[in-house]
Amino acid sequence: MLSMRKIAVIMPFYGKPHLAPSDRPDNIWDVTIKRCKDYKIKLQGRLKELYCEAKRRVEQIQKRLEEQKIRAVETYEGEALRETIEFEGRTFPLLNIINRLARVVHTRIIEERIIKHASPILYLMLPEDPIMFLAQINISDILGLHDIQTAVPLGAFDMACESLSIAFRAIHKGDAVRLILASLTKAQGLLSYNDVILHIDGTGISLRSIENGLNVFQRREDIAAFLGRRTHGWMISSDRQLIELYENYVISKALGLDYLLPDLQCGFWILRGSTAGRLNLIAHRFEIELDIAIELLRREVRFTYVDVIPEDDNGVNKWEQDSSSNEWYKWRPYHIDKLSLIETKLKLRNICKGIYSMLLSAFKDFVKNHQDDLKSTIGVQIPKNWETVLNKYEEHVVKYIQRGAKGCEDERKSVKYPKIVSDDYRRWLNEQLKDSSIPIREDP
């Protein structure tokens, strides 16, 4: 069994509110309090007093808004931002208190209950909190920070022995994860095959998945990376499940695989330090998981899937399984980001003017022929109006991406994908997938 040298855990709470209506438990306050109880974390002294006062204020907000029949998450978040707590002669925003409790509780859970045999490096990324990085950096690197498009430097930089401590605010998930990976591999030296860099989304996925993943990591010395696989519900709306499946389908077809890559976008993944240091990542926002998966494929890294455990074994976040009316407005830019990244990484631009419409047509046939298999084998919940969803996706995402593309018209016989991976690696992937996925080789 392989021993672990250093362990780093990245846990982002991106896209999650601090407060939400009582039947929408996927928010930072409710998740923190539930995990505090589940893992029997005892708060003492000033922290316990802060918790009691925060709990009282949260209950007041929830009761008042529920009486007014207000359901918008944005309203709950706005109330948390506006509310303040007087404590020991100082004034604290309620939102900051929730972040502080979340940070203390999750740090203690990971260090005391989950990773007991080592002292992990922990990056907990909470909304409204600055993120601190340690970097081996020079002047050219500083001038090149514009590549981190969504990062706004916060405060002064502390320089010591060529290491620079940098605090950022207003930074999106992809940029934050890339900066953390650079910090871990370049400044903190997690470059060994025995080093572990683990990422788990702050909500939705049970923290027990960390233990399971590390156990697999130790047993499988031949594997350099592990991707989470959501087999018991994808913890997102059925519309988004369908679109993620299409994105995975595009990648599988572009690589010439015989089987569908079942999950490339789960918020749980593990990299060996030596693997993380090789990845050329460019994602800025929520396309970071796709970026990592595609880099593993392009660099022919041998990886395997690890089943993730939902927060609730009976089906986490049931309220998210139905697509909301404003979801398309919120997620359209992210769908565009993801398809653009696929196009860039797999060199699909201009190989065929209507490549994505062509693939979408083939994907519709694939869904029609494999609806039952998709649920039983991959765990995807296909929406009843799936054809309408895909038509809307084509109109608002695919056509936007294809504007200005050159190349052949939609003649399938003319399409030739660039060769991204070797034949040996493709055969290895097909062998790994044949008993746990769905064949796509009969598709055009």
Q: Beta fraction of the residues?
A: 5-15%
Strand order of the largest sheet: 4-1-9-11-10-12
* Distance linking N and C termini: 44 Å
Shape: globular
Tell me the total number of β-strands: 12
Task: Note the run of SSEs as H and E.
Answer: EHHHEEHEEHEEEHEHEHEHHEHHHH
- Percentage of residues in helical conformation: 40-55%
Return the structural class: alpha/beta
Are there runs of 5+ residues with pLDDT below 50, and where? 154-161, 314-321
Mean pLDDT rating = 86
* DSSP helical segment count: 14
Major sheet size, sense and barrel closure: 6 strands, mixed
Radius of gyration: 23 Å
Furnish the topology, listing elements before pairings.
Elements: E1 7-12, H1 28-38, H2 45-67, H3 73-82, E2 84-87, E3 90-93, H4 94-114, E4 121-125, E5 131-136, H5 139-143, E6 152-153, E7 158-160, E8 163-169, H6 173-187, E9 196-200, H7 208-219, E10 225-229, H8 238-254, E11 268-272, H9 273-276, H10 288-298, E12 303-307, H11 327-345, H12 355-378, H13 386-402, H14 423-433
Parallel strand pairs: 1-4, 1-9, 10-12
Antiparallel strand pairs: 2-3, 5-8, 6-8, 7-8, 9-11, 10-11
Helix pairs in contact: 1-4, 2-3, 2-4, 8-11, 10-11, 11-13, 12-13
